[in-house]
């Protein structure tokens, strides 16, 4: 009797299974290569197109006799940066402030131009101000109904007529859309109805753009993660009340604070910073 060269417990690989395993590995390697190269390639492509766009626009304003004999990418971008620095230095001087003030007065007298200029100036001053807290906090807000939460960004404290006509202290909240965060909704939300997140603004924007695929980790202590902040039950909604908020107490136990229909204040583990 002839013995088999393989032990009885050794499985014999079938040709079809081997080919399928090889195909799976090749497919995984292919997608891994895309994940590694695609972000860098897309970033380089967008940066290159932006540099070309700026170079072409700047070169159109420079006389031809001053053009370099060899085209060097990025020269137009450097010229634009230097020009902006020069304008900023001139605008901060005494003469520059006087001239720009006169220019603003002229623009403010034009019916349509003054609206566009005023809105753009206010937005840029808010975003670029070093001490501004606009888009510095990521929050959770119940939208479009109770029990459904959406990521939003605080843009400031509600003031003026909107605040005076509301019974509670409200906060200006920008609720972006996915995957285009440049559009969205402006909401005036009572301060106690917001939950402040520990994630950064950049992480919040990445989460919105990716549709939740990119989720930042929870950096809170382990004992805090086990305590739910919001517990929504069907009984409370059937009774017309808001969600039950389970807030960690100082002694480590849980304390309930139910948001009533009349907007009573609820406890929060982290207070909102005033913008």
From TrEMBL:
<feature type="compositionally biased region" description="Basic and acidic residues">
    <location>
        <begin position="217"/>
        <end position="228"/>
    </location>
</feature>
<feature type="transmembrane region" description="Helical">
    <location>
        <begin position="29"/>
        <end position="51"/>
    </location>
</feature>
<keyword id="KW-0812">Transmembrane</keyword>
<keyword id="KW-0472">Membrane</keyword>
<dbReference type="Pfam" id="PF04367">
    <property type="entry name" value="DUF502"/>
</dbReference>
<feature type="region of interest" description="Disordered">
    <location>
        <begin position="217"/>
        <end position="275"/>
    </location>
</feature>
<protein>
    <submittedName>
        <fullName>DUF502 domain-containing protein</fullName>
    </submittedName>
</protein>
<feature type="compositionally biased region" description="Polar residues">
    <location>
        <begin position="252"/>
        <end position="269"/>
    </location>
</feature>
<dbReference type="InterPro" id="IPR007462">
    <property type="entry name" value="COV1-like"/>
</dbReference>
<keyword id="KW-1133">Transmembrane helix</keyword>
<feature type="transmembrane region" description="Helical">
    <location>
        <begin position="71"/>
        <end position="100"/>
    </location>
</feature>
């Amino acid at each position: 009797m002839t013995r088999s060269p393989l032990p009885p417990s050794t499985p014999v690989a079938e040709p079809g299974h081997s080919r399928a395993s090889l195909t799976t590995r090749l497919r995984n390697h292919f997608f891994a290569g895309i994940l590694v190269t695609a972000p860098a390639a897309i970033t380089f492509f967008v940066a290159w197109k932006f540099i070309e766009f700026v170079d072409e626009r700047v070169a159109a304003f420079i006389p031809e006799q001053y053009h370099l004999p060899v085209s060097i990418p990025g020269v137009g971008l450097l010229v634009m940066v230097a020009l902006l620095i020069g304008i900023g230095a001139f605008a901060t001087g005494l003469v520059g402030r006087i001239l720009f003030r006169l220019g603003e007065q002229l623009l403010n007298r034009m019916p349509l131009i003054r609206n566009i200029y005023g809105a753009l100036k206010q937005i840029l001053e808010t975003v670029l101000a070093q001490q501004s807290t606009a888009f510095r906090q990521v929050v959770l807000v119940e939208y479009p109904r109770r029990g459904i939460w959406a990521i939003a960004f605080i843009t400031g404290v509600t003031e003026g007529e909107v605040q005076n006509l509301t019974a509670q202290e409200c906060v200006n909240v920008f609720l972006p859309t996915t995957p285009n965060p440049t559009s969205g909704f402006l909401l005036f939300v009572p301060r106690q109805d917001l939950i402040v997140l520990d994630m950064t603004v950049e992480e919040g924007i990445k989460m919105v753009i990716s549709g939740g695929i990119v989720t930042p980790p929870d950096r809170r202590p382990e004992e805090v993660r086990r305590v739910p902040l919001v517990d929504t039950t069907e009984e409370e909604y059937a009774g017309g009340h808001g969600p039950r908020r389970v807030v960690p107490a100082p002694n480590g136990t849980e304390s309930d604070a139910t948001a009533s229909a009349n907007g009573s204040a609820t406890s929060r583990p982290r207070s909102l910073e005033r913008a």
